[in-house]
Amino acid sequence: MTTLTGPGTAHLMARDALTSLLDLDEVTWVGLSAPVEVDFQPGEHVAVAVALPAAVTALGTRVALRAARPADAAQVWRWLAQSDLTPRRLGAPHFPDHPIPSFAAFSNDYAPHYFDGSLPYEGRGFIIHSLALQRDVGFVSHERLDVLNDVTCLDLWLADSSVCGQGFGSEAIDLLCRWLQAQRGVNRFLLRPSRRNVRALRALRRAGFRETDLPPTQLIDKLSLSRGEYPDEVLLFRFVPLPSQRVQPPVGHCHVYVDSEFSRLTQPQLLSFGAVADDGSEFYGEIAETLDESSVPLADRCSEFVCDVVLPLFEQCAQPRAALADRFVSWLASRARGRPVTLISDSGFDRWALSDLLGTEALPAGAQWLRVPVAYETLDQVAGSLGLRRHHALDDAIGLRHAVIHGD
Description:
By secondary structure, the chain is α/β, with parallel strands linked by helices. The chain contains 15 helices and 16 strands. The chain has helices at 9-19, 42-51, 73-81, 103-109, 113-116, 168-184, 198-206, 216-222, 288-291, 298-301, 304-310, 321-336, 348-358, 376-386, 393-406, and strands at residues 2-4, 28-29, 36-38, 56-59, 63-67, 124-130, 135-142, 152-158, 188-191, 236-239, 254-262, 270-277, 282-287, 318-319, 341-345, 367-371. The chain has an 8-stranded mixed sheet with strand order 2-4-5-6-7-8-9-10. Strands 14-13-12-11-15-16 form a 6-stranded mixed sheet. Helix 1 packs parallel to helix 2 and helix 14 packs across helix 15 (393-406). It is globular and about 65 Å long. The chain starts with a strand and ends with a helix.
């Protein structure tokens, strides 16, 4: 038995062996503060890491997460509906109110975007891969990412009882929470098990999830949550504090500050996108499809604030989304000149905007996203001092760059 507290020597060797096969932006290392016990020999762990598939999303000490693919859907359903663990959460005798779904019903609940990443902010699934067993052992997913309320619902199930009790589920949940915070800008996570699922409740509490003092009905209304699957559901929350972020001088690296404007906070539509690089070069564009008023007037799709403050600043330079995305990717490559790129913003909405603009969950090759929170009042002050148009996507990106660089 080997005990690793965070990234020990054996795990660093395994991680280095894995990342040597992958582009660095494909793997997120997530450290764990508590000691974990891993039932394998260090030398074997290195071989396991090298054998992992290339599409690794997050790497822990017990498991790795990889984005689920359409070919995984049938196996994921079998783990849910035909496993010796199924009676713990579905069907008679304990859950007659929650029948075991057919594959068709499962596919309706877990639409194609859970397995192909086509709508990354509407829900995504990940396969849990055991480093010690060298096989897939479960499935973990998030539902729609509610950036406004800073919350998303998670779900998880393991393949069968042979992989229970080894910490795979708890680490998978921890990895997903930290990855979603780092890559999607969400900090609050919710699971909604039945109170009858005593094992799940114990495991989730060990993973840091807690009930709140507020009545469930009040929380559901406050956070605009959908109706739960179980009549006796327990709302278990975990909040991951936002780590302090310091932007290092861009030596051998390209920093690009981005901002976006959108129609409203709920069900937003991307209106415009702006960016400024560390060398001062600028990018700006407006989305023709969103601004098209041929079907529904723009004023009916935008909040009063957007109509009064944001739209009057537009420059009437709209382009089709695909053309604007291509132009942004080309501009970004010309700024990077082969260097790694960090796309910096102050809000998770801007990460959503990047996915919406590019039409994919992936960032351009060689790019990563970093959220650097800056107080709203600070950005107001910077805009005033520099004579910027507040709530114009390009000018707000310029203001963010100034605030981060000068520490305002």
